[in-house]
Design brief:
heterodimer; A: mainly alpha; 2 strands; 72% helix; B: MetI-like fold; flat
Chain lengths: 309, 512
């Protein structure tokens, strides 16, 4: 009697377990559908052959790669059989190139600055350390956009808008990157101080310790910094649109793609939206690949940052 | 007074009880924390500044009173003390800086500062043709460019920053000169240039490391903020567009106009009312955006992490897609998918005509919903990492004590995660107050407010996106600066209060 009651209880427990799991699977599948839906839609639309801004069905009826080709050849937008030429400087390839150059340079410089700042704030003790950290905390609370106007005037003054907008943008993105020291410093704080002390007894200078002890131990955080500093300028909109001052030649992909969408929404029934989708795929590919390869480090950074708070 | 329990009672609480207790303390202490900004923080800051000023003058006084002629000469000619004591490298650097500064001020800076009082004097003279009253011939005057008020302001501020830098260098020169004298009197060794360089790679290495980043910080963060603060006191707007027209100081007029309403050239925009409305929405948005993401993200992380659920990695990877794909792509796409009627694929598939982004009330829900879609993966990642870090022996001992999974969840998992992630809530909240990307790319702030004279603001506009419109479309620079200063005060006060409270309440040893 007693044993069978126990078995019954165990069995019912198993049933409960199984049904909760089933509910969870349903939820997870629903979540996956919701989360993947936009991306599948993006790919579908980028392969759509029919013209027009929108269709009332999900899968295209005519499959084509033309949208990708037109994106790069800059063929005019087709509209009711006639072709409207795109404005001067409307060139996706140029935008892509701009964005890539900016992102690569910013990544290198920003990573260096963050590492250097974090080392100084984590490992060295000097009088201005605390005030400096408080200052950066407070400066981070100013709305970024207003300072952008001032920066725009400054760049205009030294002639780094429009024709030299790449240099201008790089300077702006890199300019205040030392304020992003927080997560990296948190990582450095976890490297035992005894390593430094041992090296110092051996007669190593602070510089030697930085290059020979700390940097070799910091691979995860370096990769995290590289990844986040690359993703920032890759999708930046606000300042890129401001500095180009409305001239398509100097846009980056984000500004250009928003314009593609605006163009289409204004009622020009062409293949602008399909091109936008093709552009979306082309823009996402490298960054998404990079992200998935380095995902582990990204997770470490996010978690570490949260724990350090 | 806060009601506190004794240490023993506290240790006797369960994990969940501890958390609730701390949360209660946190909220009860908020008003006091707000007051403490004025009663503790500001006096503390004032004392520190006062101490620094006192130190500054004390050093100067000491160097003057006890210095020999070499140190005293340094007050006028920088680097004298160093030259006289064979620290040639230091001497050259100080002297070169002084010469550079004087040259700059004579050639350029002085003139710019003199224009600063009125932000430029000469207005542009348009080209015109006047007939000579003696001969009757037409005389043509070409257009003469005037002062560009923007540049006057810019150069003025840069000059002031330079002056501050110079004063600091001058002070450093006296301090170092006096220190050299004292070393000499004590018959000690004076560092040579070579040794100076060596300490820059060792004991003074932070100077080498931080000089570059800090120059960037001054030029690209501090200078623009000072510029912005100055702009708030000018009438730089659509009627005073530099370089064609001068703008000038107007004192507190912009601040008054914000609260009293009415500003010349704003097209009758009632800034005060709009500001109030948007402020309310911004705060509501930030609260919802932060907490929905936090709670839902945590739930998702926990169910994926549940024992017996398979393909954990797959579910996570699917969610992470939103982080991996650039946000502007997915947000722009979303804005298109949520369009009205036959234009939006979601309405098509649902067979409805829901005005996702064009109905004033619904649009607010939509942006929060889409923000959940954007934000859940971040919380999920963070919580997943933490779940894996929970010490296994906690569960082990709970199991020995006979606790079931539900009990363990409420007594161990939840308190632990809340404890570790609570600080990130603060930074997320502040980030959401200024979340430009989601709103601007998704709804563009639309639909437009129905009230007249709304200054271009839309129903889902946050203060930050409204600022963007004020500057880019309406050219209301002065007013925009006023609003950003107010936004700064808001963010700063909220974060200072919450930050101080959470630090006071947090007990780091609880789970370690």
């Amino acid at each position: 009697m007693a044993t069978s009651a126990k078995q019954k209880k165990l069995r019912s427990k198993k049933v409960v377990e199984r049904s909760t799991n089933a509910v969870i699977y349903v939820i997870l599948v629903a979540i996956s559908v919701i989360w993947l839906f936009p991306f599948v839609f993006l790919i579908m639309q980028s392969l759509r052959g029919e013209l027009g801004a929108a269709t009332n069905y999900f899968f295209p009826k005519k499959w084509t790669f033309d949208n990708y080709i037109h994106l790069f050849t800059q063929e005019g937008v087709k509209m009711n059989g006639t072709v409207t030429k795109l404005p001067d400087g409307y060139n996706f390839l140029t935008w892509y190139w701009h964005t890539l150059v900016i992102a690569v340079v910013v990544t290198i410089v920003q990573t260096l600055i963050v590492l250097v700042t974090s080392y100084a704030l984590s490992r060295m003790r000097f009088k201005m350390r605390k005030p400096l950290m408080n200052l950066m905390l407070i400066l981070g609370m100013f709305p970024g956009f207003m300072s952008m106007t001032a920066m725009y005037f400054l760049l205009q003054l030294i002639g780094l808008t429009q024709d030299f907008s790449i240099i201008g943008l790089i300077l702006v993105y890199v300019g205040s990157s030392c304020m992003g020291y927080y997560i990296c410093k948190g990582f450095f704080d976890t490297i035992p101080k005894s390593l430094d002390e041992a090296a110092r007894i051996d007669g190593a200078s602070r510089q030697t310790i930085f290059f020979k002890v700390i940097i070799p131990l910091s691979k995860p955080i370096i990769i995290y910094t590289v990844l986040t500093s690359f993703m920032g300028p890759w999708g930046e909109y606000m300042f890129a649109s401001l500095i180009a001052n409305g001239s398509a030649k100097y846009w980056n992909v984000a500004v250009g793609m928003r314009d593609m969408l605006q163009r289409e929404m204004m009622g020009t029934y062409g293949d602008s939206f399909q091109r936008f989708c093709a552009a979306g795929v082309v823009v996402s590919l490298p960054i998404t690949t990079l992200f998935f390869i380095l995902q582990r480090y990204y997770v470490e950074g996010v978690t570490g940052g949260a724990v350090k708070g | 007074m806060e009601k506190t329990v004794s240490q023993i009672d506290y240790l006797g609480m369960s994990g969940w009880g501890k958390f609730c207790y701390r949360a209660r303390l946190f909220f009860r202490g908020l008003p006091a924390a707000f007051l403490s900004i004025f009663t503790v923080l500001i006096p503390k800051l004032a004392r520190k500044v006062w101490g620094a000023v006192k130190g500054f003058f004390l050093t100067l006084y000491n160097a003057m009173a006890k210095g020999d002629w070499k140190t005293r000469m340094s007050f006028a000619v920088m680097g004298t003390s160093q030259f006289a004591r064979k620290q040639v490298m230091r001497g050259i650097m100080f002297l070169a800086f002084e010469i550079l500064f004087i040259l700059y001020m004579v050639v350029f800076g002085g003139a710019q500062l003199s224009l600063f009082g009125t932000i430029g004097r000469r207005a542009v003279v348009e080209s015109e043709t006047v007939s000579d009253f003696l001969t009757g011939d037409d005389i043509r005057f070409e257009k003469i460019p005037g002062d560009d008020s923007r540049l006057v302001l810019l150069y003025g501020i840069l000059t002031m920053i330079f002056i501050v830098a110079f004063v600091y260098a001058w002070y450093a020169n006296i301090k170092s000169g006096f220190a050299a004298q004292q070393l000499e009197e004590a018959k000690q060794h004076l560092p040579t240039a070579k040794e100076d360089f060596k300490t820059l790679a060792d004991a003074q290495y932070h100077k080498t490391l931080l000089v570059g980043p800090l120059i960037g910080l001054v030029i690209f963060t501090i200078f623009p903020i000072i510029f912005m603060i100055f702009l708030a006191f000018t009438n730089y707007d659509v009627n005073h567009m530099a370089p064609d027209k001068l703008f000038t100081w107007v004192g507190w007029k912009n601040f008054q106009a914000l609260f009293a309403g009415g500003l010349s050239g704003s097209g009758g925009a009632r800034f005060g009312v709009v500001f109030g409305k948007l402020l309310l929405w911004t705060v509501i948005w930030a609260i919802f955006a932060t907490f929905t993401n936090y709670i839902l993200g945590m739930i998702v992380a926990i169910i994926i992490n549940k024992k017996g659920i398979r393909f954990k990695k797959l579910w996570r990877t699917i969610l992470i897609m939103t982080i991996a794909v650039p946000q502007f792509v997915s947000l722009l796409l979303m804005s298109k998918m949520l369009a009205d009627g036959q234009l939006g694929i979601i309405n098509v598939l649902l067979g409805t005509n829901i005005k996702w982004l064009t109905d004033p009330t619904l649009a607010k829900f939509t942006v929060i919903l889409v923000n959940i879609w954007v934000g859940i993966p971040f919380t999920m990642l963070m919580v997943t990492g933490i779940l894996m870090n929970i010490p296994a022996d906690l569960y082990e001992s709970a199991r020995i004590d006979g606790a079931g999974p539900v009990r363990m969840y409420f007594k161990i998992t939840l308190p632990y995660v809340l404890h570790v992630t609570a600080p990130s809530l603060i930074s997320n909240f502040v980030g959401n107050l200024n979340n430009f990307g989601v709103i601007y790319l998704l709804s563009g702030g639309g639909p437009n407010m129905s009230m007249s004279g709304s200054g271009g603001a839309g129903e889902t506009d946050l203060l930050i996106t409204w600022l963007y419109k004020l500057i880019n479309d309406k050219k209301q620079y002065g007013m925009a600066s006023v609003i950003s200063i107010l936004m700064f005060l808001l963010t700063a006060i909220i974060s200072l209060v919450v930050y101080n409270r959470s630090k006071a309440v947090k007990n780091e040893e609880d789970f370690m």
